[in-house]
Task: structure prediction
Amino acid sequence: MGESLQSIVNLVDPYTLQILVNIGIAIVLALGLNVITGITGQLSLGHAAFMSIGAFTSAVITLRTGLPFSANLLLSGLITAFVGAAIGYPILRLTGDYLAICTLGFAEIVKVVFLNLDITNKALGLSVPPARSPIPMPIIVWVVAILSIIFVCFMKESRFGRALKAIRDDEIAAEAMGINIARYKVQSFAVGSFLAGVGGCLYAHFLSYINPSDFGFLKSVDILSMVVLGGLGSIAGTVFGASILAAAPEFLRFMSQYRMLVYGGLLVFLMVFRPNGLLGGINFTDLVLRAIGRKPATAEVNERHRK
Amino acid sequence: MLLQQLINGIALGSTYALIALGYTMVYGIIALINFAHGEIFMAGAFVGLLMVAVFKMNIFVAMILAMATCMVMGVVIELIAYRPLRKSSRLSALISAIGVSIFLSTLALMIFGADAKGFPDTAFPVRQVKVLGAEISTLQLLIIGVSALLMLGLEFIVQKTKIGKAMRATSEDYNTAALMGINVNRVISFTFALGSSLAAAGGVLVGLLFNAVSFNMGLMAGLKAFSAAVLGGIGSIPGAMLGGLLLGVAEVMGVAAGYSSYRDAIAFAILVLVLLVKPTGLLGQKIQKKV
Result:
């Protein structure tokens, strides 16, 4: 089976493939942050730290044990989720900007600790051997990306997801309605960290080299930009934002040295003219219902929301 | 040796405090984490370096010119990137700030190149002075002196002048201040100008202290100064000064104790610990939950 899949992958030229894989990984990471920031409303500036925990865990598992890649992927996600929950428990008492700062500080600490540990090869970084799996990497990345999209979609509309949205919209009212805020926040943090860990694992095995310095503040900002650009809380928006920003460096390659300059300017420009993100505030169910000539049930709520 | 390390720490800490003041003032008024502030600090260092190295100016004149340039920069950035976003979500403003920061550091990279540049030796003649058995360089005295002077000046502006009063009123309650006839936009521009000029002075001083100015110096210094602002209680001016000094001293002490490879983590570890114990920072006011 592996060979036939490999031949499908070979049909796509390597450059396009690389962009596609980058987009796939970005979608997994951005979805994770969207659960924390978009759906639960907890601003996190340290998503790259969870990504690095996943990346290094999976690299060490591949180097030291003989686990197959699927188990590795799951395990590094779970370990990251555990770390996320353990850290989330004390710091989620903080609200708003204080939480953002705490996650930022935490991310810097993780980076420095990884830069000093022997098991992560200190500042030299780790070379990651190829994944132990017959299925080629690009296919794994896209299967995982699609699974995450489906998972987050279902989660968002479940009882759990609605509780998270209630916390985002009004914490005190949610508490008054009997929602255990602390527990839900930690769980949402764990889900987000799980996806970050999975994304980190994919990233490590696709690039085959990881360095703690790659997971700094700017990486967190990158992921946050994807979520905000697409529209907070919107899954279609996240996928869209992740696709645009993950591919942007390639599209802007023709202006080589001006690339980051344009990127920075673009962020400002988009925020000024579209502060809610490209797809923010658009409800796709509504659009479909309108298209077939029926009045969406949520229209009234949205009207009120806009005021 | 304790005194020696203490003075090293205070010199480093007062530069953090200078940058932290800009964060805290802007946050106090429009509740925005101005991530571009670290880049203004970097720009200030470059302008100062340019004045000293190319135009052969006196270091003090260079510092004043750097402060003036960054003042304009701060106001322009506010006008372009933050003012249109005043009514939208805070997260959009944050992303916009990050965009500005990426823009400015890339611009500096393109203009000045990737390698760190140093101030010429003639910029400020460094001598060692012996005080109570500790070796203090005149540079450290300059840094502590200039920072103290600027902070006193700021305290005077905020407490004694009319615009300072308007600043305090605006940070207390934005809408009521506007109703009372305060030109809120002017106050915000003024706050940005003030904060940016302090950051520029900090940039020139740090450039002298480490004898290195580079395009990416803003990021780490900005993050640490920001931690200092939060540590002291964000929105509080004395808090920023206290937080900066504490972080500077803690960092130098940590390095002296042999944890130099954890240098950058010390400030953040303290930050996280303080936030967990006292979420509003050392001198911050308690935020009331409103139903």
